[in-house]
Amino acid sequence: MPRNRESGGLRQGFTTGSAAAAAAKAALTLLLGGETPATVDVPLPGEDAGRLTIPVEEARPEGRGARAVVVKDAGDDPDATHGARIGCLAVIEGMDGREPPGVEVVIEGGGGVGRVTLPGLPVPVGMAAINPAPREQIERAAREALRARGVHGRVLLIIEVEGGEEIARRTLNPRLGIIGGISILGTQGIVKPYSHAAWEATIGSGLAVARAAGIATAAFSTGRRSERLLMRHRPDLPQLAFIQAADFFAHSLRQASSLDFSEMVWGCFFGKLAKMAQGVPYTHAHAEPVDFALLAEMAGQAGAAPETCARVARANTARHALEIVPEGALREGFAARTAARALEAARSFAGAGPRLSIVCFGFESGVLAEAYAS
């Protein structure tokens, strides 16, 4: 189990790809030598990327092969696959007849591993959702086990995830057209807590799938609730158009622009809108404080009284600032000016081409403000 920690004391974990590679190596180690390893040492994806020692939950003979299970450890990252039992059934199907003898490693997805049904992902339609980097990692780990025993031939590795279909319901896999289980992922082999790279990769996958389906509008939201509201607001858009982009304001717009989306829309609440209006690329609450002086200035431009603006400047949160401004036309004007300012920031990230809009929803219901730019 990885014990190295990120700054702030958060513990790193390992990816589903590393878990599958470890299960494959453990199963082959048992099959070839009769040993039941307590841990296995696997390579991380990429050249000279290092190695990782991973505990083996169980390993046992099964028919002509052997099966091993590794429990996925995501460290301190809030990962839906944390604790998943990721297994591999390894079977040596035949000795290699080539001169000199060689090794062929065939990797398949079994129960709990999803199948790709939509284009745009790095795995072809119809294939098991085992991404290229972890697939290479699994094969390298298997070849190490075979080489250690001097074995040549054709090896079949069936990767499985217990309860993978249920776990997948807590991920974006169904939205991406990955059906029947989870994906085997991991470009680095380790999970960094609250990894920006993982979120950015998910956003990129969603955009690629939408674009491959011929969708020209990227509909971003900051979370599940804002996404549901945006779906109601834009019933003209198919489900594939909607991407939960969280706090990745700049990255999402830049990525969509690079894929030639002709329209981009953001759905959010006022707290995120305030950060967007500041022009910050990443809108997490801890990344940069709310600029209450800016909010006070926009409240004044909307017609708020000086004493109201002074209270906005001393607000505790962006929502508090909004609630200080009197309800009705004054508050709506304040929100509209904030949305317009956020739209300017969005343009700076998306470039001159696409149509842009930002929809700010009220905390209770309805649309609070909306800004457009063609």
From TrEMBL:
Annotated Pfam families = CbiD
Tell me one GO biological process term: anaerobic cobalamin biosynthetic process
- InterPro entries the record matches: CbiD (IPR002748), CbiD_sf (IPR036074)
Q: What is its EC number?
A: 2.1.1.195
Q: Catalysed reaction(s)?
A: Co-precorrin-5B + S-adenosyl-L-methionine = Co-precorrin-6A + S-adenosyl-L-homocysteine
Q: Name one GO molecular function term.
A: methyltransferase activity
Pathway membership: Cofactor biosynthesis; adenosylcobalamin biosynthesis; cob(II)yrinate a,c-diamide from sirohydrochlorin (anaerobic route): step 6/10
According to the lineage, what is the superkingdom? Bacteria
**What is this enzyme's class at the first EC digit?**
transferase
Q: What are the record keywords, sorted?
A: Cobalamin biosynthesis, Methyltransferase, S-adenosyl-L-methionine, Transferase
Q: Which family does it belong to?
A: Belongs to the CbiD family.
Q: What is this protein called?
A: Cobalt-precorrin-5B C(1)-methyltransferase
Which species is this record about?
Fundidesulfovibrio putealis
